[in-house]
Amino acid sequence: MIRIYENPDQAQAILNRRTMTTVEEVPDVVLESIKRVFGEALTPEAAVARLLADVRVRGDMALREWTMRIDGVTLDAPEVPRTEWETAYRALDADLRAALEVSTERIRDFHARQPIPNWTTDAMGGMLGQRLVPLERVGIYVPGGTAPLPSSLLMAAVPARVAGVDEVVICTPADRQTGRISPLTLAAAHIAGVDRVYALGGALAVAALAFGTESVPRVDKVVGAGSLFTTIAKRQVYGIVGLDGLYGPTETIIIADDSANPAWVAADLLAQAEHDVLATAILLTPSRPLAEAVQAEVERQTASLSRAEVIRTSLAGQGGIVLTSDLATAVRLADQFAPEHLCLSVAEPEVWIDKIRNAGGIFVGEHSFEVLGDYVAGPSHIMPTGGTARFNGPVNVLDFVKVINIIGLDADTARRLAPDAARIADAESLTAHGMAAKFRQQI
């Protein structure tokens, strides 16, 4: 079910087999669903553009019509009353409610420790500095297609609250069978203390948050992962609204040596693979005995899992066990891949932390397994995918603030700097700029 790759070319091939969202690679079932909804063959990009344009012009009416056509859900009013959140919270199993509250507290505690410094200096002539100002209104998209994900709500809403965002708005799709948002997600909204919840999914949710409608307020930034259509919609509204990142299928690389527990390594690979048929779960190890033991454990454990078919498809498509010459090579390959999650299941994991430049999160040792990061460790589990860890990081408090520069130079400094400003302006043929600077030379 999960193959072992030993040949260097084979190993590189599996590491290059990152799932992309190009038109050529869109599954036929997705293209068929687009044709069913729109009545003609369209690319995902064209379909999303049509949705965005309609919501921008017709607002709530477009939201209702497209929600019915896409999901078969009657959307009388997009907003979910707060009383429904409270009812869902009270009805929640006591142990599950306690677990969500533990998660919330740890997320809050972790992000409250993140520095958000305002600073000024008078060492450069007058006052210079920066203010970090919370965003006024943020929209958080919470996926809900195949299963409710209250953890994703907490992982974005709690850091936003810590940052001081004035208004936190949640969008998440209603269940196709019940026509309602999962009570588990509503309970999480209550625990996180968000302001508003809307039963909107995918590109429609992004459109409503970006443009605003009669019922949905326009936000300053859209945060959260979602489906292919959600990601395309985020890409198309960028510039109208801010974004945290563009997220593809989830991914994990585990680096392990012969000190690792093969049953634990296999369990961690399976936990990743069950997310989605396009999820990536890869083990890099210099130990053939470990590789073979993990391979056997994957087969044994999969048989008892509820999402076994998803797991098998994921591991066959994007998964693999890659034998490397040593741990240093494994770390180098992982860093080139720039995974969302990088797990160090090795005897001395701390030795390798500083060798890693590109990862959404580094899970140090077998006791820091990824599932803890998914739910209760504290850092947000919304992390960069698709190689974007080369230039982007996980959702954190800084995603919910903006920097404002403060420039308050004194007269002597202004007079001293004005000639240099004028020279640069004249060199750029911006004579009005130059004149404004030359006037100040006489201060």
Quick structural summary:
Helices cover 45% and strands 15% of the residues. It is α/β, with parallel strands linked by helices and 443 residues long. The strands form three sheets. It has a six-stranded parallel β-sheet, sandwiched between helices. It has a five-stranded parallel β-sheet with strand order 6-5-4-7-8, sandwiched between helices.
Structure, explained:
This protein has 443 residues and is α/β, with parallel strands linked by helices. It folds into 4 domains: 4-19 and 249-378, Nitrogenase molybdenum iron protein domain (Rossmann fold); 23-71, no CATH class; 82-243, Nitrogenase molybdenum iron protein domain (Rossmann fold, 3-Layer(aba) Sandwich); 410-440, no CATH class. Helices cover 45% and strands 15% of the residues. The chain has 17 helices and 14 strands. It has helices at residues 8-16, 28-38, 44-58, 60-71, 82-91, 94-112, 150-163, 183-192, 202-211, 228-237, 262-273, 288-302, 308-317, 327-337, 370-375, 411-427, 431-440, and strands at 4-5, 119-121, 126-134, 137-141, 167-172, 196-199, 221-223, 242-243, 251-256, 280-285, 320-323, 341-345, 361-364, 401-409. The chain has a 6-stranded parallel sheet with strand order 1-11-10-9-12-13, with helices on both faces. The protein has a 5-stranded parallel sheet with strand order 6-5-4-7-8, sandwiched between helices. A 3-stranded antiparallel sheet has the order 2-3-14. Helix 3 (44-58) packs antiparallel against helix 4 (60-71). The longest helix is centred in the N-terminal third of the chain and has 19 residues, at 94-112. It is globular, with a radius of gyration of 25 Å.
